[in-house]
From TrEMBL:
GO biological process: carbohydrate metabolic process
Catalytic activity field: Hydrolysis of terminal non-reducing beta-D-galactose residues in beta-D-galactosides
All copies of domain Glycoside hydrolase 35 catalytic, residue ranges: 21-326
Official protein name in the record: Beta-galactosidase
Pfam families given in the database record: BetaGal_ABD_1, BetaGal_gal-bd, Glyco_hydro_35
Domain Beta-galactosidase 1-like first all-beta intervals: 372-483
Amino acid sequence: MGASDAESADTTPAADGPFPDRVVSGAVHYFRVHPDLWEDRLARLAAMGLNTIETYVAWNFHSPAPGVYDFSGWRDLPHFLEIAQAQGLDVLLRPGPFICAEWDFGGFPGWLHRTAGMQLRTSDPAYLAAVDEYLDELIPRVLPRLATQGGPVVAVQVENEYGSFGDDTAYLEHVRDGLVRRGVDVPLFTSDGPGPDWLANGTLPGLAATVNFGSRAAKAFGELEVFRPGEPKMCMEFWHGWFDHWGEDHHTRDPQEAAQVLDDMLSAGGSVNFYMAHGGTNFGLWNGANFDGVLQPTVTSYDYDAPVGEGGEITAKFHAFRDVIGRHFELPDVEPPPLLPRLEPRTVEVDRWASFDDSASSWGEPVRRPMPVTMEELGSGRGLVLYRGSVLVPPDGRQLVLDDLADRAHVFVDGTRVAVVDAPEAAAGIPLTPRTDGEPTPVEVLVENRGRINFGPRVGRDRKGVSGIRIAHRFIHGWESTAVELDAEGFTAGISFGSPDEVPTEGPVYAAATVVVDAPADGYLALPEWGRGFLWLNGFLLGRYDAAGPQRTLYAPAPLWREGENELVVLEMGTPGKAIEIRDRADLGKAAEFRAE
């Protein structure tokens, strides 16, 4: 069903009308794909036989501060929707306000934390006021792209998997009414797990109910039939792949096994949305995290073992899924675009270095208070936060304790790193010894924001930084708190590089290299001798790398390269290497078969 066929579909121009029938959709998030590649990726999905694409809208991608919104450039959602329509694709729009998506804070802006006591995803008035501000900015930009106005958007989702979180029906009604009141007149829908409790708490009367699953289609659709007899059946998230956390294996799934589940759905007359059809990349610091006793940050790649790979590769799943779609629908007589050219593999030696303090001109203004200030209180979204103070260590020595550390902290005493601790270790304390002269000891604590939790009951509970620093039970007062926003525009331009006689052996430290290319092309960058840190290309933060794996390469798409000289900058937090490898294919690590239920 193309966008031009919207009026003939099983829909009515009312927000509570029937859901579009026989949808074959694929998820692709505009915020995870370079805008110069939107057309390429959507053309590939159209060639696979999709008639629809689905995208979330990430609130925090558009709003860095209260009342500040950006829908230009990479954030030009209306342009993305127009490209979809030009490819003959309808759109399922999922604006949240919560999206999960393995995205930082589930799409919520970090500045929501500045309102004390705000209760997210509830009918709390402070939270609803923020949601209304968001919808006031978003919906007027979407209205001209609705199918009722000749656009591609055939349906809009209310919240996201709310039945897995809570039961505040008044909140769901507020989001629904807010969409309708602002002019959304295409069908609205919800998506939840295929169980009676999830469906009971995540849906609203009059709105289409869809379910999310990866296997056992008959059972899932059966649950939906019990809940909504006779209504169309759609899997809004067909989990044919999965995401990765640092330190895990790379999740993959057998293409033929996943294709059989797809065939089961379509044979039952159901609709499907592949999650993901093209996963893309968590560029910058946008990755989210899970929590299972400890923080589990998601890796930079969001390849998701999708039919269209992170770099646009046509995979075995593409062909397996296309074959199944062709048994149920007429396939387009088009081929996917050719793969973009790849850079010639080579190894580039780094030749310039800078200390962490050499980037101080790119940091935020220090805030001096008795207690440390969290990243959110500093107005910072992502990156690092640096605390500087001094500690008079008792003669017998004591433990330095970091309160409410959610991530990882590097602790420096008298300029020397004495510990790197993750959240569970921070509560145990870091041993300190007194100075021989009896003077206070300079202490610095550098905290990494490794990604905010995006799913489950702890969403919104992992403020970044620390709330207090103690010697045993006694608080230390008088801290200077500084935000280091690594993804800020122009951050690397403020780093003063040099060529030291001795190569640094410990982070945090910056390194730089120059790469000359004949023409922009896709590439994959690897740092096999390095520990853990961040990598920029021509001032753009590609993302995080970590020797823990599984991911071994960072995707560097062609639009970020330029003919001639290109600058690579590394911030290594652990043990620096000496070279960066340019490769022509991705290495996402050791694969492990995984099947989501």
